[in-house]
Amino acid sequence: MSLKEDILWRVALVYVGIVVFAVMIIGKLLYIQFAEGSAWQEKASRMTIRDITIEPNRGDIYASGNRLLATSMPYYEIRLDLRAAGLTDRLFNNNIDSLCIALAQMFRDKSAPAYRSELVKARQEGKRFHLLQRRVSYDQLKELKKFPLFRLGRNTGGLIVIQDNQRIQPHSNLASRTIGYTTKGESGNVVGIEGAYDHYLRGVVGLKLMQRISGNAWMPVNDRNEVEPRDGIDVVTTIDIDIQDVATNALMRQLQAHRAHHGTAILMEVQTGDIKAIANLERNSRGAYSETYNYALGESTEPGSTFKLMSLMTALEDGYINLEDTIDTGNGEIYFYDQRISDVRRGGYGKITVQEVFEMSSNVGIAKIIDQFYGEREKDFINHLYRMNLNEKTGVEIRGEGAPDIKYPGDKFWSGISLPMMSIGYEVRMTPLQILAFYNAIANNGKMVKPRFVSALQYHGNIVEEFPVEVINPSVGSASTIKSARKILEGVVESGTAINLSNANYKIAGKTGTAQIANEKYGYKMNSLVSHQATFVGYFPADNPRYSCIVVVNSPSNNVYYGNLVAGPIFREIADKVYATSLDMHEPVTTEGIITYDPPFSKSGNKPDLARVFRHFKVPYNDNGMTTDWVSTARLDSVVDLRERTIMPEFVPDVVDMTLMDALYLLENNGLQVEAKGRGKVNSQSLQPGTLTRPGQKIVLEMSIN
User: Fold this and answer.
1) How open is the CA angle 281-282-283, to the nearest 5 degrees?
2) Which residue among 231, 303, 385, 657 is least crowded, i.e. fewest CB within 10 A of its CB?
């Protein structure tokens, strides 16, 4: 082949290759244009046009009376694009020092040189989304936009502002765990009212069509939103913020005084089940108390003596006993197999009535009653408890309610001692809210209502839905049983273990409870120490119940752990506040019976002695037909009213307002050594009334005149 032919062959080969390559390119262009055109157009649209989510305003949570419990406040996250298109080295270097001085003065979290070092390093690393500050307020943001460099805008100054609405609770620690909080995790909002009503509170997101423009910025395609956001619905709770404040502070003081681990207090409206206050406080490692867990709702523990009401009501309802029957409690102890059950009082109570068994909270008496009538018929006893809904949750909307545990004969952990132990509140488990729901039913003439935390939903001030009262059980017992239950609950405060809660203004009915706390590994004792749970649950006014309340204090550690002394004062403080602020609970003032005689002040003391003095000086008095030897006195209109003051052997008597002679007689008869400071009447005593006495124990009396 000649040189010319070789050159022509090579040129032809290159030409053919170019033609084939061109045909391939044209074919690919046609394929992309017609076969894949719609897909590429869609992808291009996604890169240049997109929908931006517009977050709605989350609904507020209100207390009764429309006082805010939770609301959303706008906060801002400040980030920097340190490679912004207009941010030249010269511009950055000329403004960095003055910018850092302004940042240090505003946030006061680091020095100006520290800010400068941080920003210079971030620029060297080419960061385009550098975090500068979180939780910047709107007022701070307005000032921030005036700072050197930042005033030049995003493309030149690199300032990026991201709005983040954050939830705040104006009343801080008040019912904070029940109100709940918002989260951004995969599980969503689950805590408290925030979680239970999240579907209403969160609203509906909106959409806005945005288009990418030069400088990697996005701008709206049009002035209207594609989908308008809808604000969340407001939730109106049943909580009364004033009573909540009283409950929280009363619980706080008592927990601090007894160095308890945690405690809870709940106040419920009898007829509706409305929760007016709910406090949960726990001590942290520094000794401070705060709301970290909803013990009222979630902690299921052995209720102790508060369960004795359920046991006695079962026997009353089945017709085995009445309140006048006599029970021999012996010397205060009884054995079931190897399990010893004993009473608090040394030597026991001997023969007492069923009513006194309950008022004195006799473990022996309750256990003997239940064992006698249900010892061979355990299922009848448990079935009756089930019919009172004691094995069921209350079903409140807030998540995390602890499950009650009332085992059944034949279950894995049932034993020969289960029946007597359950009768006095052991080997069963209930939450404070579940116990309160049952006692509330007694106050409500047997009707058990579901506890209610939310009364209504509203949108921009207009009610959109109201939640009715829900009945769990129309009657937990017959009318006669409910009447007997209310009688013995009143007796506990009038002459039983909670006599220290009795007062002249209104009557309280309730039950004390002092339970040992079981540890899963060590049982009821750990390192020879026993932890206790002190409880008082009841309602007021006893003759026309309006509110029920439970207070539980866990692990008090100052050697005082009885329900009447630890939990009772909290109950009394809450009840006093409610009574004082509820005018409809007071008798109306009338002008009838104008006072014509102003009776003299009289000290409390021995009734026969007082009566003799009153008769001698012709002072009108009313003894109310009492046969007791010791009374308190009160001035009522034109007479001196004598009121029963119960004095129980082996318990510290209440000697306040008595003369020193009467006080010495009572205290020394109980084996106490008395030290009196001053003269006149007794103003205060160092040992609280109702506590057990120890022979030789010292008590100090502060008199009215020093």
Assistant:
1) 130
2) 231
Which range of residues forms the domain containing residue 25?
3-35
One domain for residues 198 and 287: no
Whole-angstrom distance, CA of residue 105 vs CA of residue 113: 12
Q: What is the pLDDT of residue 341?
A: 94
Q: Given phi > 0 = left and psi -120 to 50 = alpha, else beta, which region is 232?
A: beta
In whole angstroms, what is the distance from residue 509 CA to residue 496 CA? 11
Calculated CA dihedral for residues 278, 512, 407, 191, nearest 10 degrees: 10
The total number of residues written for the chain in this structure: 706
Digit-coded pLDDT (tens) for 533-576: 999 999 999 999 999 999 999 977 656 667 778 899 999 999 99
Measured CA to CA in angstroms, residue 537 lies from 252, 344, 392 at distances of 18, 20, 19
State both tokens at 130: 């550098």
Q: What is the CA radius of gyration of the chain?
A: 37
Q: Give the mean model confidence (pLDDT) for residues 123-131.
A: 87
The amino acid at 325: D
Same domain? For 7 and 28 the reply is: yes
Asked if 167 and 75 count as a contact pair (C-beta separation under 8 A), the reply is no
C-alpha–C-alpha distance, residues 638 and 600, integer Å: 9
Q: What is the Cα–Cα distance from 132 to 638, expressed in whole angstroms?
A: 76
Residue at 44 is within a domain: no
Cα distance between residue 474 and residue 382, in whole Å: 20
Determine the 3-state secondary structure of 323 from DSSP.
coil
Whether 134 is in a domain gets the answer yes
* Residue 450 resides in a domain: yes
The pLDDT confidence band at residue 703, using thresholds 50, 70 and 90, is: confident
For every residue of 607-662, DSSP letters joined together read HHHHHHHHHHTT--EE-TT---SEEEEEEETTEEEEEE----TTB----TTBBHHH
Answer yes or no: do 456 and 576 share one domain.
Answer: yes
C-alpha dihedral sign at 47, 48, 51, 55? positive
3-state secondary structure of 77: strand
- Residue identified by tokens 């079981």 is 518
Structure tokens given for 470: 């829900």
Structural domain count of the chain: 4
Is residue 424 located within the same domain as residue 507? yes
Share of the chain above pLDDT 90, in %: 48
Rounded distance between C-alpha atoms, residue 339 and residue 81, angstroms: 74
Does the residue 302 lie in any domain? yes
d(CA 519, CA 512): 22
Tell me, yes or no, whether 506 and 642 share the same domain: no
Rounded-to-integer distance, Cα 661 and Cα 679, Å: 11
What is the arithmetic mean of pLDDT over 274-285? 95
CB atoms under 10 Å from CB of 339, counted, come to 15
The vertex-290 CA angle with 289 and 294, nearest 5°, equals 120
Give long-range contacts, CB 8 A cutoff, 24+ apart: 658-663: 658/603, 658/604, 658/605, 658/682, 659/603, 659/605, 660/701, 660/703, 662/604, 662/605, 662/606, 662/630, 663/701
Over the stretch 205-239, which tens digit does the pLDDT of each residue have? 877 666 665 545 555 556 555 667 888 999 999 99
CB 362 within 8 A of CB 308: no
Asked if 30 and 106 sit in the same domain, the reply is no
Distance CA 222, CA 209 (A): 8
